[in-house]
Specification:
Elements (H helix, E strand, L loop, with lengths): L10 H12 L4 H22 L9 H13 L4 H20 L26 H10 L6 H16 L3 H6 L5 E2 L4 E5 L5 E5 L2 H18 L19 H12 L10 H14 L4 H8 L4 H4 L1 H17 L6
Antiparallel strand pairs: 1-2, 2-3
Helix pairs in contact: 1-2, 6-8, 6-10, 10-13
Length: 306
């Protein structure tokens, strides 16, 4: 839905173009912002009889937030929608479309911090070392997807955007395009490097000449991989070794960071590998590590509560 002003200009479209081409936010973020704005505009029209979001004020925004909370939406999701509106109205304010920011009195909800879910080391070892994958293209690709996500900690969007030329065969590294179009270099273990080499040869044999073959991970038809394909591969395989409710690519990213930290890796190094802009985002893994420490203490210390 694109709210139109009397002059015919679509401010929401301008904003989405701005964050796509000037801010260069990821496709995933762009999709989330678009849905948030659509939901807000529908609410304004249905509940407040307002067809243009630039006409909304603090009361309308607050009413929408209250409706989201009452619907049972978790606080982190509500806060993301608040962030969307904060960026949107900040954009309108800079463009002098509005004189007052309706978000100036809006505060983010206080949400309890959730520890990231991760798979323990032994189940991951079982999945990647003991379970046999088929020697077919699909089998080799599926194993590589799991090894890359767990072995490098890259995001889903970074994996689907990875191209064959991003693999440095001499340095044994991959170059990843992360959030805000920032590149980072991630080293590969020798087994992962060898798996990539074997997969590339198999892919070239199967799909030589196809335009989408420039992407490292492709479907069984040779087209570029897409989120649903990767999510299905991860979910089906993690189900073999864990009962976690969430079985997603991000769980493997959390597992990568948690296992590194548990084995003594420097937090700043983990930050750089994950592509976090600040150490604050990485520090959540210290809580996970502390929980593991407490668990070990409770199991091993003679004075621990039984």
């Amino acid at each position: 839905m694109n709210p139109i002003n009397p002059a015919g200009q679509t401010f929401s479209s301008d904003f989405l173009q701005h964050i796509r081409y000037e801010k260069r936010l990821s496709h995933h973020t762009l999709t989330a912002y678009t849905k948030d704005l659509e939901q807000f505009c529908l609410f304004l029209l249905a509940e407040c009889n307002i067809a243009q979001p630039e006409l909304a004020d603090f009361r309308h925004v607050r009413s929408w937030i209250v409706s989201l909370v009452e619907s049972g939406l978790d606080k982190s999701s509500v806060n993301r929608k608040i962030a969307t509106l904060r960026n949107f109205y900040g954009f309108l304010l800079r463009r002098k479309v509005i004189d007052f920011d309706p978000m100036s009195k809006i505060m983010a909800l206080k949400a309890s911090k959730r520890l990231p879910q991760y798979v323990e080391e032994k189940p991951m070892e079982m999945l990647l070392n003991d379970i046999e994958f088929a020697a077919t293209f699909d089998g080799v690709r599926d194993k590589l997807v799991l090894e890359l996500l767990y072995g490098t900690g890259i995001r889903l969007s970074e994996l689907t955007g990875l191209k064959t030329v991003d693999v440095n065969l001499y340095e044994k590294t991959i170059m990843v395009l992360g959030k805000r179009n920032k590149h980072r270099i991630i080293p590969l273990t020798q087994p992962l490097f060898e798996l990539i080499q074997a997969y590339i040869l198999l892919k070239e044999k199967e799909f030589s000449g196809l335009a989408d073959a420039v992407y490292l991970i492709v479907s069984d038809k040779g087209i570029a991989s897409y989120p649903m394909l990767i999510q299905r591969i991860v979910k089906n395989n993690l189900a073999l070794v864990t009962t976690l409710a969430t079985k997603s690519p991000h769980v493997l990213r959390h597992s990568f960071a948690t296992h590194l930290l548990n084995r003594g890796a420097d937090l700043n190094a983990i930050k750089d590998l994950l592509g976090h802009s600040s150490l604050a985002a990485t520090q959540i893994y210290t809580h996970t590590s502390l929980e593991q420490l407490k668990k070990t203490y409770d199991q091993a210390h003679p004075k621990a509560k039984k």
